[in-house]
Amino acid sequence: MTFEINDECRVLFERAAVVDGLDTSRWGREQTYRKLRDGGVTAINATLAVWDDFRQLISNVEDWYGWFDEFGDLIRPVREVEDVRAAKAEGRTGIIFGLQNPAPIGDDLRRVRLLHELGVRIIQLTYNERNLLGDGCYEATDVGLSRFGLDVIREMNEHGLLVDLSHCGERTTIEAIEASEQPVAITHAGPRARCDHPRNKRDHVIRLLAEHGGVIGANGYPLFLPGGVDATLGELIDSIEYLVELAGIDQVAVGTDFCDGQPREWFRWIFSTSHGHRPPERMPDLPDPHRQLIGFEDQTHFIGLAAGLLDRGYSEEDVLKLLGENWLRLFSAVWR
Amino acid sequence: MTFEINDECRVLFERAAVVDGLDTSRWGREQTYRKLRDGGVTAINATLAVWDDFRQLISNVEDWYGWFDEFGDLIRPVREVEDVRAAKAEGRTGIIFGLQNPAPIGDDLRRVRLLHELGVRIIQLTYNERNLLGDGCYEATDVGLSRFGLDVIREMNEHGLLVDLSHCGERTTIEAIEASEQPVAITHAGPRARCDHPRNKRDHVIRLLAEHGGVIGANGYPLFLPGGVDATLGELIDSIEYLVELAGIDQVAVGTDFCDGQPREWFRWIFSTSHGHRPPERMPDLPDPHRQLIGFEDQTHFIGLAAGLLDRGYSEEDVLKLLGENWLRLFSAVWR
């Protein structure tokens, strides 16, 4: 499933700032960074931590500093929106530090600011399960935000960190949208109406996000799309269309959930739980090697996404918004 | 022992950038920050850690972020020399994060960069005793730098951190001066020729420092001056005169070693050792309450120092150098 890439598309893509709302690939390998570069990806929300505790996070940050040196021709750090624009001008990919799980914060509110100082710009409030802040989307319960969760949001607002709600339970998602003084993100989730999966969001939640100025990144992970392991790029574009209809052209973007080069053990790890990493009860039956969307297999296929969006009749301006400008407007509103 | 503060001195002091090469007071108390402010101190190398490990350092950094909010009318963070100039313009005191001991680095070279990201700008290579980098000035041995010590210096050069050698053993001091690609500091030590104490530096070491573009901050701690607990501001100025004679007017500054508000237990702690903090064998017989120099008792007396320097016949330009401009030139050369 691919779309024809004509000259109009090529010219448009050349000037686009392409921003991926979530990329959780295996970092530190030149081939992944080269795919980002070859694919014309301007910036990504790069997952810095999933189950990692503070100690491990520090080590991951140190790894990244090393990679910025080692692969400096391909990637650069992003601390502000200007760094994304610079990445575009330099022909590099900007790396935005994002946490999928606030575990490194522990119960120390002051760590939010510390993480900001270390360059973190996006933090997801919960990852699948309940934590000190709220509920995850795989819990049987749906208890909403704790007092600590509210404090973390206030602290994130104060220091200019973007709140991400992709893996949160519904009440936690709703309450966080309402509690945050700044617009928030669902960096990588789809519409539940198109695929009934706990990782996808219901219409009223997506509308509420949009009403509060937030942005949702349509998720490109096959298992959260109707076609499952056989899902195609066309289905991702269906998601985008559905979301644009629901939330408006300014509130929709893309979060691929790319996991380039991740080994099978990593999937076991991220599908596990925080408590001693029990055997992964929820581990889906993944094909091996793991496959992303047909027609959107990795970071080199964003131009195909642009072609598909043009094919569906979106204007050039709208395609630019969906490919990255909506993310950048949100980042500008939130980051300092 | 005080000097007359005339109008010339007042006008000069008004425009001076006053920089203290080391202040290790008890942080977090408004009264200390107010003394700094009332004393017209533009910036200080504020000791962030002595025996503290990485975990404790993180907590200290978090404390400081809180104090920058709580006492924002009095203090501000310093990450570059422009921040010191801004502090002067704003009538606040700039806080430079400095480590007296590289213990938070552990054996992880990458942590140098991480500390830089957290805002640390000065690291002393050893504190009194031997560590993974080199020897301290209280060791019976004097083994010089380890390979790891050389690596840390290279990493500090790379990322723009100032090397401080005040508490280092002599060989470590000499080898670090020679190994560093950038000029280094002895932020707070005096001339051994005037007071034979392990914390003071011999003439040939001071000359070598100066030849490599480094700066020495004449130490204002009474026990390292000839008069001991009864030492006066005049003796500090004697040190400065001696150092200027030896090293030149551009290579000398001041490092007070002020310990404002520190309780007796703290002195026991810093005079102890890293290994389980044994009973402090080296603990000097300090008067209680602890006293700084007579005539230079705390951070409000810098104008008296200016008066004393003018009294000794230094030109206004030279006084400005000694009060702070020499530190700022060094910081400019080293920090990024």
Describe the structure.
The structure is a homodimer of 336-residue chains. With 336 residues, chain A is α/β, with parallel strands linked by helices. Chain A has a domain at 102-334: Metal-dependent hydrolases (TIM Barrel), CATH 3.20.20. Helices cover 40% and strands 12% of the residues of chain A. Chain A has twelve helices and nine strands. The first copy, chain A, has helices at residues 7-15, 30-38, 54-70, 81-90, 111-117, 147-159, 170-179, 203-211, 233-247, 264-270, 302-311, 316-334, and strands spanning 19-23, 43-49, 75-77, 93-99, 120-124, 162-164, 185-186, 215-219, 252-255. In chain A, the strands form two sheets. In chain A, strands 1, 2, 3, 4, 5 and 6 form a six-stranded parallel sheet that branches. In chain A, helix 1 (7-15) crosses helix 11 (302-311). The radius of gyration of chain A is 18 Å and the shape is globular. The mean pLDDT of chain A is 94. The A-B interface holds A 58, 61-63, 65-66, 108, 110-111, 113-114, 117-119 and B 58, 61-63, 65-66, 108, 110-111, 113-114, 117-119.
Task: Label this structure with key terms.
three-stranded parallel β-sheet, six-stranded parallel β-sheet, 12 helices, TIM Barrel, 336 residues, homodimer
